[in-house]
Amino acid sequence: MGTTSQRLISLDALRGFTIAAMITVNFPGLEKYVYPPLHHTAWNGLTFTDLIAPIFLFVIGVSIALAYSRRLDQNAPKAELHRKIIIRALKIFAVGMFLNLMPDFDFADARWTGTLHRIAFVFLFCGLLFLHTNWREQAWIGALVLVLYWLAMTLIPTPGVGEVMLEPGVNLAAWIDQQLLPGRMWQGNWDPEGILSTFPATVTGITGMLAGRLLLSKYSPNEKANYLMAAGLLSSALGYGWSLTFPLNEGLWTSSFVLLTSGFASMLLGALYFVVDILGRRWGTGVGVIFGANAITVYVLADVFALFFYGLLFGNQTLNELTVNAMISAGFVPKFASMVYALAFTAVNFIPAYILYKRKIFIKL
């Protein structure tokens, strides 16, 4: 396997811009004033917002391939790598629980799933898989998981319902969560980061590992960019075709959703790799690189800062309500005012990211 010691600015930037986009869509100025692309789809379909989480999981997969290929080439003991992967996954999960429990820390009503929880599981499964399989085996495992998930969701009737259902709260994935998940679920009787849907989400990480393997190959840089784009186009086409029978759905993380979003991620990485790393045109990438250097830390800080920016009361209004309503009164379109506040909040989170980056502090959860 060929390796490279040179960091991919394109990958760092993609990671950072994805986190920035995640913060922006998670914290609108006012929830009732949001442009449709900045909302998750109600159920089936795909918006800009629905692309963010799978792109981040894809980037995690790429990063696993790049980081652990170097460690394996250095003959690092696998037992040591196992320990580090497991400990890091546990730390990410623990931080996710901390965010879920803030600010009341009511363990009786805790939610045991979430974005960081899913990241932890995907990192754990993909990291261990990478240490013990080659890229062909990873591809076959990913394909098998997607097919089995599709068959399970479309052929097994939901217990208690007596028929196959793909609607919210009454599908097989929701039923499994209702039986096995402790605490509360995000949508009452179902959770978008539930147990069964974590398996296809892991495949999103596997597609990233395959892209990372390509970047480590002995192909020329131009060939790598071309193959990333071609593979992404093919994956997107297959995902769209599959969606005609197994709809695109982030809440279920359907097999078609995996292929389509991984395809988009591959094409985006290929384009950035060509422009940034091959052509050397790095204008504007600095913001992404800074956000990406401490991506999960910034994500966590955003939730902490939100206690002030979305919870501080001025009279009978929170700071975000006061600000957005004032902008609307000044003549701003409500949805635009809400988006401006979200972007301003994202910019606030850039400040600690910049300080950490300049001081060369990189917090690895």
From TrEMBL:
InterPro entries: HGSNAT_cat (IPR012429). Residues 7-218 form the Heparan-alpha-glucosaminide N-acetyltransferase catalytic domain. It holds the Pfam family HGSNAT_cat. Coiled coil: none annotated. Keywords: Membrane, Transmembrane, Transmembrane helix. The chain crosses the membrane at residues 12-31, 51-69, 85-103, 115-132, 139-156, 194-215, 227-246, 252-276, 288-312, 332-357. This is Membrane protein.
